[in-house]
Design brief:
The protein has 439 residues and is an alpha+beta fold. Helices cover 45% and strands 12% of the residues. The chain has 2 domains: 4-159 and 316-385, 3-Layer(aba) Sandwich (D-Maltodextrin-Binding Protein, domain 2), CATH 3.40.190.10; 161-315 and 405-436, Periplasmic binding protein-like II (D-Maltodextrin-Binding Protein, domain 2). Helix 2 packs antiparallel against helix 3 and helix 12 (263-269) runs parallel beside helix 13. This is Carbohydrate ABC transporter substrate-binding protein, CUT1 family.
Length: 439
């Protein structure tokens, strides 16, 4: 058991880190040895964390195990509330603006940028953790920073990759998965013809819907804004992306315009689609069900195809953890975060997540989970390869608001369903985005 005095001295991780150094690499031991801020929880402190519902039960189990270790070490009880992925964002915004509710939140993308003045500054902690562990991945770090300050700490990128039935791809006449968008469209057409279609979400899915929409746009060279934050969505590149999406949509099963984050998993596991994009959680759901053993053995993963832009450009679901200013126990909350990011605790959580959560810090990229199974490979570099949703402009209230309002997701949905012409759908997105990116 970790003794409370050791915890308060900020040195409890040293011996444990030394013990695991041979397994995880010298960088972890070096990271743990770096100086960390020390926080003394307030007398009688207790904490409440709002987090998203896990898709991998072992991920939550590892988080809860680390939390119990923290409570055992400090006496600070931590209550963890779970909400669906879509509900975390509005509940966190309400808590921030009314000044009551959970002390901390695990939120999405650049949500902290919507209420930065409602969050505790954690610059000292974010800087020290980064320096001790090889540095934050830039894309993840950008979500948690406002200027020179950390208003949150990056937790992870939830890798998004194509998952598909290998035998169904081959039955459609393809010996290997196409690497470009043109070949990908042909594959989807062929799989539909064989009765084993694809399906991607065009609904308001905070993860999968945004991941798909941003890949469609970026792979064709489009972008919501330029480097100065000027809305540039109305472009030939965007039109090409929309037209491509319309052709892909013709190969999907009906109803994908209403899909949320649970629907593509369910459709794949039910055998309704043989190709979609998802986290590795779908594989583990199939693996634990004896009735789906054949499916699990047939599943493969790969990164999304490269479009006319000529490079891999993907959005990955990202999560940060913030402390609300209304908390009565800010020192306890910072102590909790410091504890959870210690190498032995972070590595245990990453392993528990079974390749579902990609590490936020470079020191943890050699965690053996990434090479433990071939299907993990497509998810291993999510933190390093992700492009922030506000590309190519700065992250802030405008980028966060535009994403929270599903401007890009709705643009594609309007066009593929015939609700609007491609040109009108783009103009609608342009008009809506300009509400946030006011000059």
């Amino acid at each position: 058991m970790i003794k409370r005095r050791d915890f308060l001295a900020g040195s409890a991780g040293l011996l444990a880190a030394s013990a695991i150094a041979g397994r995880f690499g010298r960088a972890f031991a070096q990271g743990a040895a770096a100086a960390m801020p020390s926080y003394k929880p307030e007398e009688g402190a207790s904490l409440r964390l709002l987090r998203w519902v896990p898709f991998v039960p072992a991920e939550e189990e590892a988080w809860l195990a680390n939390t119990k270790k923290f409570t055992d070490a400090t006496g600070v009880a931590v209550r963890i509330d779970k909400e669906s992925w879509e509900d975390v964002r509005p509940k966190a915004a309400v808590a921030a603006n009314v000044g009551s509710g959970p002390d901390m939140v695990m939120s999405w993308f650049d949500d902290p940028q919507q209420y930065p003045d409602k969050l505790v500054d954690v610059t000292d902690l974010g800087t020290a953790i980064g320096q001790a562990n090889g540095g934050w991945y830039p894309g993840l770090e950008s979500y948690a920073r406002r200027g020179d300050s950390f208003i949150a700490l990056p937790i992870c990128a939830i890798g998004n990759a194509v998952i598909y039935r290998d035998s169904h791809m081959k039955a459609a006449g393809f010996s290997e998965f196409p690497k470009d968008t043109a070949g990908f469209l042909e594959l989807c057409k062929a799989m539909q013809a064989k009765g084993t279609p694809a399906g991607f979400p065009h609904g308001k899915a905070v993860g999968d819907g945004n991941n798909y929409a941003h890949w469609l746009l970026w792979s064709h060279g489009g972008k919501m804004v330029d480097e100065n934050g000027t809305v540039t969505i109305n472009s030939p590149e965007t039109l090409a992306a929309v037209n491509y999406a319309m052709e892909l949509y013709k190969t999907f099963i009906p109803g994908t315009e209403s899909w949320q984050d649970v629907n593509n998993n369910r459709a794949f596991l039910a055998g309704q689609v043989s190709l979609t994009a998802n986290g590795v959680s779908a594989y583990y759901a199939a693996l634990k069900d004896p009735a789906l053993a054949e499916m699990a053995a047939d599943m493969r993963s790969t990164n999304l195809p490269i479009g006319p832009v000529g490079e891999s450009v993907e959005l990955h679901q990202t999560s940060t953890i913030s402390i609300f200013r209304h908390t009565r126990y800010p020192e306890a909350a910072k102590a909790y975060l410091e504890f959870m990011y210690r190498p032995e605790n972070m590595n245990a959580w990453i392993q528990g997540a079974s390749a579902y959560c990609c590490q936020p810090l470079r020191a943890f990229e050699n965690n053996p989970v990434w090479t433990s199974k071939p299907i993990h490979a497509a998810y291993a570099k999510a933190s390093a390869s992700l492009r922030p949703n506000g590309y190519a402009g700065p992250l802030g209230a405008a980028s966060a608001g535009t994403m929270a309002d599903y401007v890009l997701v709705d643009m594609f949905a309007e066009a593929v369903t015939g609700q609007s012409s491609p040109e009108d759908a783009i103009r609608n997105a342009e008009r809506r985005a300009n509400r946030y990116y006011r000059v």
